[in-house]
Design a protein that fits this description.
With 260 residues, the chain is an alpha/beta fold. The chain has 10 helices and 9 strands. Strands 4-3-2-5-6-9-7 form a 7-stranded mixed β-sheet. It has a two-stranded antiparallel sheet with strand order 1-8. Strand 5, helix 4 and strand 6 form a beta-alpha-beta unit. Helix 7 crosses helix 10 and helix 9 crosses helix 10. Bound molecules: S-adenosylmethionine (SAM).
Length: 260
């Protein structure tokens, strides 16, 4: 990779530590009849390890300049797709009935949330995602109610997944060295999805509840039947001045099912 010119605009910070790469691979129990999707394989540092599962592996990379490194990893189970992941229809690439589908990636940080949303919106049944993200983002995704990082994205992800921070990764393990530290997170599909009448309305309610930081629910939910919201809050010993960041996903679900 001596002559490779990293593109900051594509989030190109390549992971250089073999122990961390191996640790990411060992975080997931993939079997041969599963599918692994990798987004942003870069020069293939993680891809090499993902191939050890001997499962089907489909890697989406936007930058064709890595072809000389990445094409060497192609074989009958490993496909490299040179496309912008945000532009592809993922379903078009899933041609078999896989036992389980995993997403494992060191993500380009500038599009972390759009990538995750795109995967969720694709409707593909993902068993687990193990992702390297910016540490601050990992903290936001895994925050508990009451924590300053807790927000609508936390609730959104917790609706689908058990979200956990697996381990921290210092910036010094990347080339070029970014100006943030990282963390590897796991998002594991919930066995029993939440029982909600209308998920789209639920997500709108959550977004509205967090709309203005430091404002109470009463302020942010002016367009809703607040009497019903308050009734749920009171059942949880919460008062009229409660803010969205104090509510667990279970309470949000209860509110949604009460008002819709
Ligand atoms: N997996 C490699 C590693 O761990 O060293 C590289 C990770 S690097 C943080 C992110 C990679 O995502 C880069 O190779 C970059 O070119 C690629 N990338 C950026 N935007 C992308 C997009 N929209 N679709 C697919 N790949 C993208």
């Amino acid at each position: 990779m001596e002559k490779f010119r990293y593109k900051k605009s594509l989030g190109q910070n390549f992971l250089k530590d073999e122990n961390i790469l191996k640790r990411i691979k060992d975080s997931v129990l993939v079997k041969e009849n599963d599918l692994v999707i990798e987004i942003g394989p870069g020069s293939g540092a993680l891809t090499k390890y993902l191939k050890e599962y001997k499962a089907d592996l489909k890697c989406f990379e936007i930058d064709e300049r890595v072809k000389p490194y990445l094409d060497k990893l192609k074989d009958d189970k490993t496909e490299i797709i040179y496309q912008d992941f945000l532009q592809v229809n993922i379903k078009d690439y899933i041609d078999k009935d896989y036992a389980n589908i995993y997403v494992i990636a060191n993500l380009p940080y500038y599009i972390t949330t759009p990538i995750i949303k795109r995967i969720i919106d694709s409707g593909i049944k993902i068993k687990q995602m193990v992702l390297m993200v910016q540490e601050e983002v990992a903290d936001r995704f895994t925050a508990l109610p009451g924590n300053k990082s807790y927000g609508s994205i936390t609730v959104y992800l917790n609706y689908y997944f058990k979200v956990q921070k697996l381990f921290r990764v210092s910036r010094s393990f990347f080339e070029p060295v970014p100006n943030v530290d990282s963390a590897v997170i796991s998002l594991e599909a919930l066995d029993t999805p939440y029982d909600i009448k209308d998920p789209a309305k639920f997500f709108k309610l959550v977004n509205d509840a967090f709309r203005l930081k430091r404002k109470t629910l009463k302020n942010n939910l002016k367009d809703y039947d607040f009497e019903k919201v308050l009734a749920v809050l009171m059942e949880h010993n919460l008062g009229v001045n409660t803010r969205a960041e104090e509510l667990s996903i279970d309470i949000f679900i209860e509110i949604a099912n009460r008002i819709f």
